[in-house]
Write a structure and sequence with these properties.
The protein has 2 domains: about 5-295, HUPs (Rossmann fold), CATH 3.40.50; about 350-490, Isoleucyl-tRNA Synthetase, Domain 1 (Orthogonal Bundle). The chain starts with 5 loop residues before the first strand and ends in a 40-residue tail after the last helix. The protein is about 45% helix and about 15% strand. With about 525 residues, it is an alpha/beta fold. The chain has helices spanning about 20-40, 55-65, 70-85, 100-115, 165-175, 185-195, 225-230, 235, 245-250, 270-285, 315-320, 325-335, 345-375, 385-410, 410-435, 435-440, 445-465, 470-480; strands at about 5-15, 45-50, 90-95, 120-130, 135, 150-160, 180, 200, 205, 215, 220-225, 260-265, 290-295, 295-300, 340. The longest helix has about 30 residues, at about 345-375. Bound molecules: 5'-O-[(L-methionyl)-sulphamoyl]adenosine. 5'-O-[(L-methionyl)-sulphamoyl]adenosine binds next to strand 1, helix 1, helix 7 and strand 12. The site of 5'-O-[(L-methionyl)-sulphamoyl]adenosine has 20 residues, from strand 1, helix 1, helix 7 and strand 12.
Length: about 525
């Protein structure tokens, strides 16, 4: 039976700045999840992209003295280039300035307007430019937005989407679908928010205040609120409101159960779990299966990284120190998905040295160098497995099942932990059996130990390929070019005796902390 499709998205990032480690984090995790699904034979689609309209981007372009489109073109290229360096395998790079998207957004607006889901009214509110959100008086905390940004009072005529109409339906959907908002504590936060009366959503901005946006099809004096435009990307990216794309849209969006998983940071959970589902309900479309809110990377003083404070970490700076695969590994492994965590280069280096260099890399080097020394670089024959070898075999064979179970619950950190545990077991087994001594008195036993250890390396290489594609592919090449197919991770002694095993430089070099510049 063919497997149900999986469509994963990252937020589309504002092009007011170049990506930092927080953006890279979400994109790498989404990439890793996409690659796992592909490797397991699931039809997979992965979308990332950029959010180009709105006040923030208009202001950033003005600051650079550039026409907004020219500014966006340059910034979009920056994102693309950085994702390429991080080996991101997105199928779609979405840009909200693409004409098919603009047309589709206008068609959605017309549909909702014709159906009476959009109305106009004179509105007085508190506008936070930095958040691009209107707040009511009661939302304010000490005269500021709940996010802490400055607000100004504005009165104007605007268009509103009848979001409040869908409040009860949304609550019921969230309650009936436990996996809809994850982690589950975030679901409770959203339900808490929905216990208050829900306001309708202001979806327009007068051109007199903001011109950089998608024009409302029913009033040329207004552009569309950037979040209304941006959220629709997930659906227009797979064919919504585009002729000839009905099948594509049905496959990737409008299916039941839904193939869609949105990954995003906890700060934009409300827009994704309240605005977006109610928009979809009004449009008569399926809701995503999962909205997963990840946490933040914090500075060492436990603050969210901030450009103005100069505490932002650039992903390529880290990559240049430890390499792309080690960076991908760190981001996937170091924090439980959903939690916040501090970021420091010391933490990165400790993690990659201890788990990649000392554990994984060491097992590989010791095994390969002993096979070179005592078996002419060819995999020894194994006659019969000893009790200890059988025990390690059982651990190795259960690893992919445990990993799959963790992935099914989006527990990426734990999924990788299972592989590390197997490698730790294998290193312990090697240390206990001391094949370097055994080889002098009992060569067949030494051969058994080395072959069993190398099997663990082979299985780890397959299971970690989505996280470290380049290193793992190179490793599989060293093991006689053995297959990296997912099904091979559930086999033991898959490498044939006599296979030529390359004994090369360490796969993961130990990394030293760069010296501070004088
Ligand atoms: N354009 C909107 C999203 C629209 S999606 C339809 C946006 N863009 S953003 O450029 O501000 O990127 C936000 C994403 O980066 C969020 O998911 C946010 O959580 C994430 N991060 C920003 N700083 C972060 C950290 N320090 N750590 C982890 N992720 C954080 O919002």
């Amino acid at each position: 039976m063919s497997k149900a499709p999986f469509y994963i998205t990252t937020p589309i990032y504002y092009v007011n700045d170049i990506p930092h480690i927080g953006h890279a984090y979400c994109t790498v995790v989404a990439d890793v999840l996409a690659r796992y699904h592909r490797l397991m034979g699931v039809p997979t689609l992965f979308l990332t992209g950029v959010d180009e309209h709105g006040q923030k981007v208009q202001a950033a372009a003005e600051k650079r003295g550039l026409d907004p489109k020219k500014h966006c073109d340059e910034m979009a290229e920056n994102f693309r280039a950085i994702w390429k360096e991080l080996n991101i395998s997105n199928d779609i790079f979405f840009r909200t300035t693409d004409s098919f998207h603009k047309k589709a957004v206008q068609d959605c607006l017309s549909q909702l307007h014709d159906a009476g889901e959009i109305y106009t009214k004179e509105y007085e509110g508190w506008y936070a430019q930095a958040d691009e959100i209107f707040y009511t008086e009661k939302d304010l905390v000490d005269g500021k937005a709940p996010t802490g940004t400055e607000v100004t009072k504005i009165t104007e005529k605007n268009y509103f989407f009848k979001m409040s109409k869908y409040q009860e339906r949304l609550i019921s959907h969230i309650e009936k679908n436990p996996g809809f908002i994850e982690p589950s504590y975030r679901k409770n936060e959203v339900l808490g928010f929905l216990r208050q009366p829900l306001n309708d959503l202001c979806i327009s901005r007068p051109k007199s205040r903001l011109s950089w946006g998608i024009e409302l099809p029913f009033d040329r004096d207004y552009v569309t609120y950037v979040w209304f435009d941006a959220l629709l990307n997930y659906a227009t990216g797979v064919g919504l409101k585009q002729s000839g794309k009905t099948d594509e849209f049905k496959k990737w969006w409008n299916a039941s159960p839904s193939p869609v998983m949105h990954l995003l940071g906890k700060d934009i959970l409300t827009t994704h779990s309240v605005y977006w589902p109610t928009m979809l309900m009004a449009l008569g479309l399926e809701l995503p299966r999962t909205i997963y809110a990840h946490g933040w990377w914090l500075t060492q003083s436990n603050e969210k990284m901030s450009k103005s404070k100069g505490t932002v970490v650039k992903p390529l700076d880290v990559k240049n120190i430890i390499g792309v695969d080690a960076l991908r590994y760190f981001l996937s492994r170091d924090v439980r998905l959903g939690n916040d965590s501090q970021f420091s280069i010391e933490l990165v280096i400790n993690r990659v040295n201890s788990e990649l260099s000392n554990n994984f890399g060491n097992l590989l080097s010791r095994t390969c160098s002993l096979i070179a020394k005592y078996f002419g670089g060819q995999l020894p024959v194994v006659e019969k497995l000893s009790e200890k070898s059988e025990a390690l075999k059982a651990v190795a064979l259960s690893t992919h099942t445990k990993l799959e179970a963790h992935l099914a619950s989006n527990e990426l950190q734990e999924a990788l932990g299972v592989v590390i545990d197997m490698l730790t077991n294998a290193n312990q087994y090697l240390a206990d059996r001391e094949p370097w001594k055994m080889a002098k008195t009992d060569l067949p036993h030494a051969g058994e130990t080395l072959t069993i250890s190398l099997e663990c390396v082979r299985i780890a290489a397959i299971l970690l390929t989505p996280v470290m594609p380049t290193k793992c592919e190179e490793l599989l090449k060293r093991l006689g070019g053995t297959s990296g197919a997912w099904s091979e991770a559930s086999k033991f002694l898959a490498l044939k005796p006599g296979t030529v095993i390359a004994n090369e430089a360490p796969l993961f070099m130990r990394v030293e902390l760069p010296k501070a510049e004088a």
